[in-house]
Design a protein that fits this description.
heterodimer, A: mainly alpha, Rna Polymerase Sigma Factor, Chain: A, Arc Repressor Mutant, subunit A, about 75% helix, B: alpha+beta, 4 domains, 5-stranded antiparallel β-sheet, 4-stranded antiparallel β-sheet, 9 helices, RNA_pol_sigma-70_dom (chain A), RNA_pol_sigma-70-like (chain A), RNA polymerase sigma-70 factor (ECF subfamily) (chain A), sigma factor (chain A), RNA_pol_sigma70_r4 (chain A)
């Protein structure tokens, strides 16, 4: 029976730099579900999300020398690569802004609390913490993080002043923080 | 620099969640390196983002890992390189050479000398085909042109009928507005914002018009296509503003008042949207148990 190894972050970085495939395999086993989840949330199409995931891990393998520990943890860096690759893929597939805004507008309408009652929105696989996040807060995080919308686009979609976007974002994340703490 | 104010401005949250444009992103990075207290907040936010995305974790298809390991294991060979996404290949020339299609097979050698008689027959055949193609194109063009006249004539008749229909509709509508002089002026009053409603779900768009007077805060309603409600039900208009609901009253829907302006309740808060619902009679608690028929967004 194989023993279960755990590695520190520094060991992982060192191992990747030394082109150690065992470390790479370990990294994949531990982080691919989270990164695949992000890709799926951005793109929704499983085949494309799978391609994105492979691209992400090749990028990690090939660009590990660019990782700067002073800017954040290894996983944060990997997460950024995953999100950016997925969003690039979303854009390269010629998803136009209008389409995005139409989609989101429909979402925005769904997220009106008074109307939400009539729509059975299925959030399979989401933990209670995220479900408990107010719809308005969830949508701003979704737009910013998973759809890569700019502040201007968010202001337009949610019909709020540009200056309010950051404070709304902060409120949303503060609420999320509280909920995640309860979950842990 | 007021660090506490900076921390509470929301810029760090926007930074961690990737909302900032490039220049602002670099600015924050510089500040993070300079101020340990900012760095601490950013680290916490990054940790929180990690916890957040774990909520969405999905196990990828098992075959992906084997493919990926294959890619990186063979990355230094042309075959391995070819497996990589194009933009990640280091030696694109190596792969492109590898994958380049073989040169086209040599054409069968054409005999150097041709008999002159053969050539004449070939030219004649080519000329015949050309004439045939030109003649067919002209015929097609003429045929299309003649059918186009018929199409245009039919379109003109249809347009005329539409104009007549619009005229009669307009005259009916103006007749109903003329009943009260004041109501007619409301349609052109710059203080009144008018919006045609959108259909919700399977309901038709444009079934009603809603107006809101910025000065008097009064709501106006005109029914165009909403059906008469069943006996035990009523239509209800709600104004929505910052997730606050305001009761704008219940319009009367019957054949005789279609196209007529109805004065509804005043709503104090600036409405962002209106919702028209069908609900059980006497229930004014809110649209929770009601069916939404129409919505209207106000800018």
């Amino acid at each position: 029976m194989g023993a279960t190894f755990t590695y520190t972050e520094a060991e992982l970085v060192q191992g990747l730099k030394a082109r150690d495939e065992k470390i790479f395999s370990y990294l994949y086993d531990h982080y691919s579900p989270a990164l695949y989840g992000v890709a799926l949330k951005v793109i929704t199409d499983e085949t494309t999300a799978g391609d994105v995931l492979q691209e992400v891990f090749v990028k990690i393998w090939r660009s590990i020398d660019k990782y700067d520990a002073s800017k954040g943890r290894l996983f944060t860096w990997m997460l950024n690569i995953a999100r950016n690759t997925a969003i690039d893929s979303l854009r390269s597939k010629a998803y136009k802004l209008e389409q995005k805004i139409t989609d989101v507008n429909n979402h925005a309408l769904m997220y009106e609390p008074q109307m939400a009652v009539h729509l059975q929105v299925d959030h399979l696989g989401l933990s209670k913490a995220v479900e408990l996040l107010q719809k308005e807060q969830r949508i701003i995080i979704d737009l910013a993080y998973f759809k890569g919308c700019t502040q201007e686009e968010i202001a337009k979609v949610l019909d709020i002043p540009l200056g309010t976007v950051k404070t709304r974002m902060r409120n949303a994340i503060m609420q999320l923080r509280g909920l995640l703490k309860q979950q842990l | 620099m007021d660090i506490n104010r900076y921390i509470s401005s929301g810029v760090l949250e926007s930074y961690v969640y990737g909302l900032l444009p490039d220049e602002e992103h670099s600015e924050v990075e510089a500040i993070v390196l300079r101020y340990p207290e900012v760095r601490l907040v950013v680290n916490n936010l990054q940790q929180q983002l990690e916890d957040f995305v774990h909520n969405y974790a999905v196990t990828p298809p098992p075959a992906l890992k084997a493919q990926l390991l294959d890619m990186i294991h063979n990355e230094s060979t042309p075959e391995g390189e070819a497996l990589l996404p194009e933009e990640l290949r280091l030696n694109t020339h190596m792969v492109s050479n590898q994958k380049a299609a073989p040169p086209p097979a040599a054409f069968t050698a054409i005999p150097g000398k041709k008999k002159a008689r053969d050539r004449i027959w070939k030219y004649l055949a080519a000329a015949c085909i050309l004439i045939l193609v030109i003649s067919a194109s002209i015929n097609l063009f003429l045929l299309k042109d003649s059918t186009d006249y018929k199409g245009r004539y039919q379109r003109l008749i249809a347009a005329q009928q539409k104009i007549d229909a619009d005229k009669s509709l307009e005259s009916n509508q103006t007749a109903s507005f003329r009943e009260t002089e004041g109501d007619e002026s409301l349609m052109n009053d710059p203080a009144v914002i008018w919006v045609k409603t959108s259909g919700y779900g399977h309901h038709n768009a444009g079934a009603a018009s809603l107006g809101w007077d910025k000065k008097s805060r009064e709501v106006y309603f005109i029914n165009w296509q909403l059906p008469e409600p069943p006996e035990n039900k009523q239509f209800h208009i709600w104004s929505v503003s910052d997730h606050q609901l305001q009761d704008a009253g219940m319009p009367e829907i019957n054949r005789s008042n279609t196209g007529k302006l109805q004065h509804m309740r005043r709503v104090i808060e600036n409405p962002k949207a209106f919702v028209i619902t069908l609900e059980p009679k006497g229930d004014s608690t809110g649209p929770d148990d009601a069916e939404i028929f129409q919505t209207a967004k106000f800018k």
